Structures are given as structure tokens and as C-alpha cells.
């Protein structure tokens, strides 16, 4: 609980890297859903993303395990539910049009349960949009060939130690299909290359080769 109680979401939104990741996710939702559709935002923090969903004409419900995050969302005018995404969701079957799970699936011990629960709470034809760090971006593919661990599995990193279930796109698509979703092609934000002195980011490369990007953004449509 302590690890998830910081101002994570607001910090993400200040970074162009994460703003672009989130924009892809919001685009996937609004391309599929009509105005007024109800969307649960899992791991919502204080409701900042809920505000962006509302601006897109959707009806957000902020969902978070941290009580203060839910209170902050309510103060911001966003409906909120306190829940643990690692357990059964306290949501009626087939009651949601969309689910946004931004940077959350890599944190749970049982991703299959999370996907199954997202499938249950969505109506047929509803959409789940996932974003998650890519286990196999361009630089980490080279690092692995050189015998070095991919960045996303560093158990000693300041915040990456909270990432316990890293994904590639094929693995994520396999999980979505097993849970009853039709997965979309991936999108990504930036292909990133880090040196000791600076970090290089390319949006063009991420559009051309999304499975080499830093983040994976994937939608799954609930099959009937």
C-alpha cells in the first residue's frame, strides 16, 4: 500500500512519454465507444485520467486500492470505487462499456484473474484497453543478447521493483484471447535509447515498429 500511495498518476501526466501512451489509450476507447459510455479506470489515482475521459464524452469511474486516491477523485467530481484489482471486482456482471487498465497489469500476481474479471464486468462488445511497459523494447533486446537483464525486471530499481509480471505483445495478446477478448494490433509511444548522458526518444519508430517501443497499448473487445 505504501508503494502505491504516492502521486504517481499526476507525475506520469507531466511526462510527454506517458501523455502520449495515455492519449493512445483514450483514442482506442473513444474510437470504439459512444458518448456517455461508462468506463472504469483501474488504478486511477486521484481521478486525473477520469477528467480526461470525461472530456472525451465518456462517464468515468475511478477505481483504486488507496482510500485517499478515491477521496481525491470524488473531490474532483469523478465517481469512485475502492477496490483491489488483484481480487474479484465489486462490479455487476456486464455493467460496463469500457475498462481502462493503465500501467496496472504488470503489478498483479494473477493477470489471468484480472483479465477474466474485466471480461465479466464488460457487456458483450465492450472494450478493455491495457497499457503496460514493454519487456522487449529495442534497447533491451540488445541488452539481453549481451547477457544483461531487461530493464523491466530490475528488482532493485526505485519503482520498477513493483513490476512483477512483465509482458511482450504476443504474451499479452495470448492472455486476452484466453480470457475471451479479440486483441487489437499494438500501439506504442516512443522507441527509447538510453545512454549514460541522455535519453533519445522516437515517436516515428514507435509508429513504425510498435513492439520495439517502451510502452504497449493494446485493446481487447469482449466477444459475445
UniProtKB/TrEMBL annotation:
It comes from the Bacteria. One of its GO terms (molecular function) is methyltransferase activity. The keyword Transferase applies. InterPro entries: Methyltransf_11, SAM-dependent_MTases_sf. Residues 41-130 form the Methyltransferase type domain. It comes from Actinokineospora diospyrosa. Keywords: Methyltransferase, Transferase. SUPFAM superfamilies: S-adenosyl-L-methionine-dependent methyltransferases (SSF53335). This is 2-polyprenyl-6-hydroxyphenyl methylase / 3-demethylubiquinone-9 3-methyltransferase. One of its GO terms (biological process) is methylation. It holds the Pfam family Methyltransf_11.
Amino acid at each position: 500500500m505504501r508503494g502505491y500511495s504516492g502521486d504517481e498518476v499526476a507525475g506520469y501526466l507531466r511526462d510527454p512519454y506517458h501523455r502520449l501512451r495515455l492519449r493512445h489509450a483514450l483514442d482506442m476507447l473513444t474510437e470504439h465507444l459512444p458518448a456517455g459510455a461508462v468506463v472504469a479506470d483501474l488504478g486511477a489515482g486521484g481521478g486525473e485520467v477520469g477528467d480526461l475521459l470525461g472530456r472525451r464524452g465518456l462517464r468515468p469511474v475511478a477505481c483504486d486500492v488507496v482510500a485517499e486516491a478515491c477521496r481525491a477523485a470524488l473531490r474532483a467530481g469523478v465517481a469512485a470505487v475502492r477496490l483491489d484489482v488483484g481480487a474479484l471486482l465489486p462490479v455487476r456482471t456486464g455493467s460496463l462499456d469500457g475498462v481502462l487498465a493503465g500501467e496496472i497489469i504488470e503489478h498483479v500476481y494473477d493477470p489471468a484473474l484480472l483479465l477474466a474479471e474485466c471480461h465479466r464486468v464488460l457487456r458483450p462488445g465492450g472494450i478493455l484497453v491495457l497499457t503496460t511497459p514493454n519487456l522487449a523494447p529495442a534497447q533491451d533486446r540488445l541488452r539481453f543478447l549481451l547477457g544483461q537483464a531487461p530493464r523491466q525486471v530490475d528488482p532493485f530499481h526505485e519503482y520498477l521493483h513493483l513490476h512483477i509480471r512483465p509482458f511482450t505483445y504476443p504474451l499479452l495478446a495470448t492472455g486476452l484471447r484466453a480470457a475471451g477478448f479479440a486483441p487489437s494490433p499494438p500501439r506504442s509511444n516512443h522507441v527509447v535509447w538510453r545512454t549514460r548522458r541522455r535519453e533519445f526518444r522516437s515517436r516515428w519508430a514507435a509508429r513504425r515498429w510498435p513492439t520495439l517501443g517502451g510502452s504497449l497499448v493494446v485493446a481487447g473487445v469482449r466477444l459475445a
